[in-house]
Amino acid sequence: MPRRAPLQVDPIAEARRQWVAHGWGDAAGGMSAVTSVIRAQQLMLARIDQALRPFDLTFARFEMLRLLAFTREGRIPMSSATARLQLHATSVTHTVGRLARDGLVTREAHPRDGRAMMIVLTDAGATLVERATTALNEVFSDIGLTEDDTAQLVGVLARFRRDAGDFAGSAPVPEPL
Length: 177
Fold this sequence. Notes:
Layout lengths: L10 H11 L3 H28 L6 H12 L4 E3 H8 L3 H13 L3 E5 L7 E5 L1 H19 L5 H17 L14
Antiparallel strand pairs: 1-3, 2-3
Helix pairs in contact: 1-2, 2-6, 3-5, 3-6, 4-5
């Protein structure tokens, strides 16, 4: 897909100007922040999608494979994957179904809970996620921000997420899977 020429005016700054002009000045900063985060997400996801396209993976499918590859035995209960990836169970079920269809994971009965399912990484899934991780690390190594800007952005967003109830406090790093 050819890249389009950059706009001559920042549309978010223009939207902010319009917000103020229409008497919504008290909401203009928040609108600008929300819109900026959403646009930044679109730009970052476009780069991620491009890096993952050769592997026929979406970011959701990659995250599931990477989570499994991080575990000691390449397996995790479906409920744990749902919690760790912060996704709805339906989304996890759909993602796992696609990965299973492609032979990248299997589903097995939980060894101690007859109602639960385990997601198990296959050898093909392990190989693919390592190759995809190498490609994604090229994106992650240069997201277009300085190290200081990246650290500041991550800190601000972590504080926002914590305050929104995404996680509690500054808990220690979880034990390995």
